[in-house]
Amino acid sequence: MSRRRNRGRSINGIFLLNKPLGLSSNQALQRVKNLFDANKAGHTGSLDPLATGVLPICLGEATKFSQFLLDSDKHYLSTFTLGVSTETGDSDGAIRREQDASSVTLKKIEKGVEVFRGKIQQIPSMYSALKHNGQPLYKLARQGVVVEREARAINVFSYKILAFRPGKTAQIDVEVHVSKGTYVRSLAEDLGELLGCGAHVSALHRHIAGPFADDQTATLEELKRLRKNTEPCGLDHLLKPMDIAVADRMAVELSPIVASYFQLGQAVMSPQAFRNGQEGDIVRVFREGGDFLGVGEVMDDGKVAPKRLVVEGA
Predict the structure, then answer these.
(1) pTM over cut 0.85
(2) End-to-end CA distance of the chain, in Å?
(3) Catalytic one among 37, 48, 100, 243?
(4) What is the pLDDT of residue 275?
(5) In a domain, 122, yes or no
């Protein structure tokens, strides 16, 4: 019986998409994958259809390093509408409750926001992609099922109020810098509950994800225009190298012979890791001459053990 072959090109790299309004992260991923004619792709942190902004998409072997981008900090610009609570915590959901927010002042908001800065516990929304017994929470929520969720430790490094528009349905524009696993809709809902008027996210834009920012991205429309006049390979200049996903990690180089053992899955000695690394550090590993081989973990004896390996020629 013949093995099923992957459709598409073997192309490796990271494309920085400015995700448009109205598409899910997976829908955007599939469009990018098709435009590049890539045989494998994965995104690095979901953005809801309501949200726009930086969505790194890993192609080919780069998917092996997507977790490092998933674990990175994120920066968002968002508008919270006060006085209206929705089922989903954003403007895509049905209105659940309306309350007059006219008595809410900027001073009250500033005092409320202070509660949610720093290291806090956050209960994830029922409309998140987290799974319960193998089922995404949002699917259970759409069936009317609510399950108990454990609070998770997050870090809100920065939470700035950019503008305040008072009224019965007041609005605030905020900028937040948060750790992985933070739900902005939960920040909005929790603030609304504290203020006693309810709130939801009515606009959301991710302008920084890990090492990537808005000004490095391209849109689907730009990709489509380029693709009209070229083959898929004509888009490859837009890809970032795979190792940029771990650019904040120490780099070590291996001689060709030592590199061959590393590629076979063996822990190898690295003078750089021995001198400058600590046990448990994750390092970028290159062959002398520049080829990225993957990432490894520094062991107590200074050796580097493979963690994620690039399959050359894949």
Answers:
(1) yes
(2) 22
(3) 48
(4) 87
(5) yes
